[in-house]
Amino acid sequence: MESARRSVAVLLAGGIGARAGLGMPKQFAELRGRTILGHALAALHDHPGVEGVLVVMAPGYVDAARVVTAGHPRVLDVIEGGAERSDSTVAALRWLADHALAGADLLVHDAARPLVSARIISDCLAALATHQAVGVAVRSSDTILRADATGRVVDVPPRGELWRAQTPQGFRAGVLQRAYDVALADPAFVATDDCSVVLRYLPDVPVQVVEGEDRNMKVTGPDDLAIAERLLGLG
């Protein structure tokens, strides 16, 4: 039955965060006494709709991540990711298949977004009841220009059609696996996120937008750390 499907979150923390200039993966930077990884983990782990969280960590930092995840009983495991984001997703899908979770509803979230809200998580899970793929996004308040390699503007897409992508992204795990099966057979495969893999390689599967929040920001550099610190102080 549809209601019997399990819901699992994959927390992608495989990047080393070089742009943050911290000398360590930015996931271990602290915001008000807790690591970025810890904030993102708590948001997923403590949500009543998420049965378990699989953490995918940068190579060489699995043991450090286990320290952060200690005391979180719904953490399924901490595994090593790959060189690219897509490699980490594939590693997670293989782990899920090996542990009889290939039929689960899956939320894939970037650890670099530590301020994701319970509302966003709930809406993603609810959308997966009727959709096979969902992506969190916020409407663009800016006009977006498309330019060629020389910097010449070649297009100005209608702003009303433009959204800024966030995470989590939600999938029936089997759908995401099928998309990657096709993608990995393509020598030209390059992916920036998992929704793009589904859009390109399973064009018959629509991706439904779930409304995000500006607060659900991505921490990339030192300025982002300062902004996230202030947002956390606002509650």
UniProtKB/TrEMBL annotation:
Q: What class of enzyme is it?
A: transferase
Q: What is this protein called?
A: 2-C-methyl-D-erythritol 4-phosphate cytidylyltransferase
Q: Which family does it belong to?
A: Belongs to the IspD/TarI cytidylyltransferase family. IspD subfamily.
Q: Which organism is it from?
A: Nocardioides jiangxiensis
Record HAMAP family: IspD (MF_00108)
What's its catalytic activity?
A: 2-C-methyl-D-erythritol 4-phosphate + CTP + H(+) = 4-CDP-2-C-methyl-D-erythritol + diphosphate
Q: Which InterPro entries match?
A: IspD, IspD/TarI, IspD/TarI_cytidylyltransf_bact, Nucleotide-diphossugar_trans
EC number, UniProt record: 2.7.7.60
The feature of type site (Positions MEP for the nucleophilic attack) is located at: 159, 218
